[in-house]
Amino acid sequence: MKTTVYAWPDMARPTTRRATDFGTRLTEARKTAGLTQVQLAQRLSISQQMIDYYERRAKNPTADFIRKAAAALNVSVDGLLGHEVKNGRKPGPPSHLEKKIAALRQLPRDKQKLVLALIETVLRDSGHSKAA
User: What is the pLDDT of residues 60-97, one digit of tens each?
Assistant: First the structure.
C-alpha cells in the first residue's frame, strides 16, 4: 500500500466529496479571472483556507461573501448563484480591456476619477460623445 505525504501548504489533501454547485461556480469564476485561491483571498481580506472552504464545502455562503466575491471576480451575484442571465458573450477568459477595468476598480477613488477624466477627454477628442 502506497502512502502519500502532503507537504502543507504546498499540497492539500484531495477531497472525497464533490464540490457544491456554488463552490463549482466560484472556482470557475476564480480561474476565469486568472486568480489563485491565495490571490482571491487577498482581494477579499480572508484566508486561503476560507476560499477553499467556500469552493469545496460551503452549502450556505453568506450574502455578504457572495456579493464581495462577485465584485472581486467581476461577475454577477446571479452568476455565482446559478441564475445567469445570458449576455450574448462567448464564455472564456476576460479580454485585456476587462482585466484592465477590473484592475482600475481596485484603485482608490481619486485615481479612478483621474483615469475616467482621461478616457472622457480621449473619447471627446475622437468625436465620440461623453458616456453617462
Answer: 899 999 999 999 999 989 888 888 666 556 667 778 88
CB within 8 A of 55, min separation 6: which ones?
19, 23, 24, 26, 27, 30, 37
Domain that includes residue 119, residue range: 95-132
Distance CA 65, CA 84 (A): 18
What pLDDT was estimated at residue 91? 65
Q: Kindly state whether residues 48 and 107 are assigned to the same domain.
A: no
Q: Find, among 12, 37, 8, 39, the residue nearest to 23 by Cα.
A: 37
How far apart CA 55 and CA 49 sit, in angstroms, is: 10
Place of cell 453568506: 62
- Shared-domain flag, residues 45 and 103: no
- Residue 94 CB neighbour total at 10 angstroms: 16
pLDDT tens digit sequence for 80-89 = 888 866 655 6
